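WP5 quarterly update. Target: Signal peptidase I. Source organism: Brevibacillus fortis. Length: 187 aa.
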Amino acid sequence: MSEEITSSHKKKNELWEWIKALGIALVLAFIIRTFLFAPFIVEGESMESTLHNSEKLVVNKAIYFLQDPKPGEIIVFHAEKERDYIKRVIAVEGDTVEVKSDQLLVNGKVVEEPYLAQLKEQAKQQGEPFFTHDFPPVQIPADHIFVMGDNRLNSHDSRAIGPVAVSTLVGRAEFTFWPVAGIRLTR
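Structure tokens (predicted):
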């Protein structure tokens, strides 16, 4: 009889250990998802050819508590009440940004954008005279950034919505994880 009680007691202890482990895993998953990393699905073609429609990626939600956004980073932000956008940081507070003759200028200096080379070539072949249409200088206010999609001919970005408040940032895109064949860093 004492063997039955010991065996029953061991099973209860084992069950309790599994319940605790599952509970801890759920709490950790909640903390990680809420404060550190989150999945994001690319919707649309505004970041082609860097990111593609329906790709899934991981967003680092903690990074902008530790540092400010930097030009060239791909970020996710709350653009509308129910919708997040993914774009590339072009300029930060205090910068002046403009486009003249298909050249991006930040603080009067040409910014090289090698990630646009393929798209610029395609636009020329399709008869588009400019890949990024001119816009006048825009001074970026404090606590804001200027963002644009890589697919400049098909992107609703700071050229239309204005500079984006840093407080609306969800985080920085780190890497794509789906489809599996497309796993890569987003930088």
